[in-house]
Amino acid sequence: MKPMLSTDLNVAETTAEKAKIEVKNLNFYYGQSKALKDINLSLPERSVTAFIGPSGCGKSTLLRVLNRIYELYPKQSAEGQVLLDGKNILDRSQDLNLLRTKIGMVFQKPTPFPMSIYENIAFGVRLYEKISKAEMDNRVEQALKRAALW
User: Fold this and answer.
1) Quick check: 28 and 65 in contact, CB under 8 A?
2) Residues spanned by the domain of 138
3) Contacts by 109-118 with C-beta closer than 8 Å and gap 24+?
4) Which residue from 19, 113, 123, 129 puts its CA 20 to 30 A from 34's CA?
């Protein structure tokens, strides 16, 4: 039996819940290469949804679109709509810090070290640079602000 693939999925409709997140006609590009094509998805509030599929099918790409983390990388872009409580989060006027407090990400292999948050952030910098405590404090603060944790 051949698996059925669909770009249209309305989980909210099947669970009779109001959609918290709606994806409408989403396309995603790595440069000129289209990675996601015409994705439509409705996700209900207060539920767990799993994206399951083979490696390279777009699961992680879709998740990165949901909090616009793809914008940290050059030549990646999204078009269409991703509505969170009815507001299009792909709109450039959206506050990314606020968005990322509402849509967090837990990566597949988190590897925090058994030390403070400050020390975890400073760890990599210390491996490659000798900077003053004041500069390190500034870098840690900026990293936390960029991650919407400050």
Assistant:
1) yes
2) 117-146
3) 117/144
4) 19
